[in-house]
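Hi support team,

I submitted a single chain yesterday and got back a structure, but I'm not sure I'm reading the token output correctly. Could someone confirm the output below corresponds to the sequence I sent? I've pasted both exactly as they appear in my results page.

Thanks,
R.
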Amino acid sequence: MGSIVRFVVASTGSAEPAGRSLSRWVILNPVLSIQAAIALSGTLSALPAGMDGSPTSAAVVYELTKKAFFDSKGQVFRETFVRDKQDQSSDPCFNWTVGVLHSALNALAESDSVWRDELKSFLPFAASYFNPKGPVAGFDVLPGPSFPNDRYYDDNAWVAMAYADSYRLLGEESLLQNANRARDFAYSGWDEQLGGGVFWKEREKQTKNTCSNGPTAAAILAIDAFKTDPAWLAKAEAIFRWTNRTLQDPKDNLFWDNVDLGGRKEKTKWSYNAALMLRTAKELFRTKPTPELEQYIADLEKAAVQKWVRVDGTIDDELQFAHLLLENLEERSLVARCGSLERVRDKLLSGSAGGYFGTRWGVAPKPSDPIKLIHQASAIRALAILEAKINRRNQNHSHQKPL
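Hi R., thanks for writing in. Yes, this is the structure output for that exact sequence:
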């Protein structure tokens, strides 16, 4: 919410970043009501109507999430949290979840530099998933030292993008090194069967999925933004061409899920597959703008909005997929479809039960439903992105002089 960048006077009487003062308060009071938020921040400006009883900012949802999911004894984040249960699992979350949580912390740290220490404290946990075993080292599905040797090419692409984003924010070379390691493993899933393409899973090379190809190309290009390498750029272009040729539905420009080595296609369409191909196309356009790419981007964006974005602000997919579509659509596309970014934000918050999110955008979990960290992290990143866009728009409007 706006208070992430505002200042409030805490009970000690000292001014400090609102995200932090709210964070300490919410540890003792996990359900932050609108009334309490107003009392702390002294403003109504960023609080959506109708969300009484639930946290309303990415910062506060993160603190609630950390309290619920972080096992201080094992120093790991757990995958699942069961409300009203005394003893929670101490098993660490999967690497896909780590990548989403990492990206959520990046978004918080970009919104306010006060979150950079929290991001830094998270990085050793993320690094514990790195498995040096060959033939190409990469991040495993669970942390070491007893690695399961069950590595996914798409997981490593998400990790590469998260590390590249952290490098942009923090400037530490070790982060770029980890981004390179994850990218190298993700690309090691490419071979020439079916004319190319990246497999999904190292141990079972049976399918080549849009979710491993789009993200791998996007990861290559995320790193290319810092250190351009023509050879890597050519690899990203090859992945992009193969995925369009093999897995794009010519009828609606969206993407099927995967193709197996027999050429059989599984034709489910997920929003994140469109999102990452959209991101890749935009990054390729940054490096080599062409009229054809410009039209491709426009057509894919239009198709994705029509398929998944509803006028009430719903992005109609599971949160771990939908948040990626949110961040890769242009703001003007969302506003044209939904009327405002606030409507998209408010619809997302309507799927919160006291700060705990369900599986889908705007659909709250039932009291008996286990809460998944990947859904919490997806909601945090989506909220942080929406808050930043809304704040930026409001600041731009406030700087405009009346005629």
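A quick pointer for reading it: The domain at 94-246+267-280 is CATH 1.50.10.20 (Glycosyltransferase). Let us know if anything else looks off.

Best,
Support desk
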